[in-house]
Amino acid sequence: MRFCPRDGTLMVPHKKDGVTVLKCPKCGYEVKLSEKAKEAYRQRAEVAEEKKRGVMVAEERRPEYDQEEMEELRRQLLENLQEAERETD
């Protein structure tokens, strides 16, 4: 990473006349990119591209309740519904 000496903005790789330069997006300051630095930017770009292609798989997991727990949940639900009805009357 390199920052612009004029305003401190992060410089980004940019192609200019077939040559890769680092350019400040804010003020336009440019500096030629060395071969070593060019390779580092290329590797980072490849890793970033691999991450874009990743696939996320989401799986819904429902809790498993036994019969006793289901009865307790039903009882609580009925109590809450009855309480809500009393509040609206």
What keywords describe this structure?
single chain; 89 residues; alpha+beta; 46% helix
What do you see in this structure?
It is a single chain. The chain is 46% helix and 15% strand. It is of the alpha+beta class and 89 residues long. It contains 2 helices and 3 strands; from the N terminus they run βββαα. 6% of the residues are buried. The protein has a domain at 12-53. It has helices spanning 35-53, 67-88; strands spanning 12-16, 19-23, 30-32. Strands 1-2-3 form a 3-stranded antiparallel sheet, with no helix packed on it. This is Transcription associated protein, conjectural. Keywords: Coiled coil. It comes from Pyrobaculum ferrireducens. Residues 31-87 form a coiled coil. Residues 2-57 form the DNA-directed RNA polymerase II subunit RPB9-like zinc ribbon domain.
Q: Can you give me a brief rundown of this structure?
A:
The chain is an alpha+beta fold and 89 residues long. The protein has two helices and three strands, in the order E-E-E-H-H. The protein has a domain of 42 residues.
Question: How are the elements arranged and paired?
Answer:
Elements: E1 12-16, E2 19-23, E3 30-32, H1 35-53, H2 67-88
Antiparallel strand pairs: 1-2, 2-3
Q: What's the order of the H and E elements?
A: EEEHH
Radius of gyration: 30 Å
What global shape is seen?
elongated
Low-confidence stretches: none
Number of strands: 3
Strand content: 5-15%
Alpha-beta content class: alpha+beta
**Average predicted local confidence, pLDDT:** 79
How many distinct helices?
Answer: 2
Give the helix level as a range of percent: 40-55%
Distance between the termini: 67 Å
Biggest sheet descriptor: 3 strands, antiparallel
Widest β-sheet, arrangement of strands: 1-2-3
